[in-house]
Amino acid sequence: MSSARTGKLSLAVAAMVALASCASNGNADLNVSSDTKAEVDPQFVPATDDEREVANRMPPLERANFWAVEYAKTPEDLDTALNFAKALATINSHERIIQLMTETEVIHPMSADVKRLKARSLSAMDNFAGARRALQAAAVIAPDDAGVLASLGLANDRLGDHTTAQVAYRQALEIDPERVATLSNYGFSLALSGDLNAAEIHLRRAMALAETNTNVQQNLALVLGLQGRFDEMMAVAGDAPADVMKRNADLLRALRGEDVTETTAPPSAAEKSPNAATLEEETTAAGPSLRRNGAG
Length: 296
Known about the structure:
Elements lengths: L2 H21 L10 H7 L8 H7 L4 H14 L4 H12 L4 H14 L4 H13 L3 H14 L4 H13 L3 H14 L4 H13 L3 H14 L4 H13 L3 H7 L5 H14 L13 H4 L24
Helix pairs in contact: 1-4, 4-5, 5-6, 5-7, 6-7, 7-8, 8-9, 9-10, 9-11, 10-11, 11-12, 11-13, 12-13, 13-14
């Protein structure tokens, strides 16, 4: 066993020894070698596939604890490290994920999944430049992965580089033309760069594929609003709360210098700009701002 693995196992071993001490009836064979114990003690053996499947349905903290123990047993195993990172994401432990994936990269430098998970956590911590670097590396390893390319587009958008973002979205859509989140994010990006007609085209494509997708509906509705087509905006809004869409429509009219039927406060800076988004999740729009899908 390597010294690195020994170090990672130390806490797990200490816990196992404590449990064994509590359960002991005082008749344990003290002459059994440590190597033999490692062979027969199930706590040193990686969990079965069935046990891992059950663990992934556990509540977040229990799931994370399960994978922490599994990782301590076999830190060099890629699948275990990825599962541990995904479990940590359910409890928003992004700093630990970045550390974990950075360590895993040393052993598995050609894993696009490692770089993708690292990028998601970097983005969650508003380190979009770091996320872009990780995704650029992942795209070199997996140039035909639409998810990697779409996420790279999203990272570029968050850095204000809409032209480069749109190249990545187009590459992703060449691989998977019906990827709804990417169509929506591409439309979002086009709107950010002022091409409202093209934004509408791609958002309508996304809506044709997922008519009940609230994010797509609201993006399309607001693009129509930015073009002054407020009746169409309200019709497309779908399940969006009527008062929210009415407020957004009034704010858009105010921005265009038009009269509104009700007194509307000037939009705040947050209402003038797109809502924040990570590579995986989105936040609720505060006003007339486009909604960005998460995973690209």
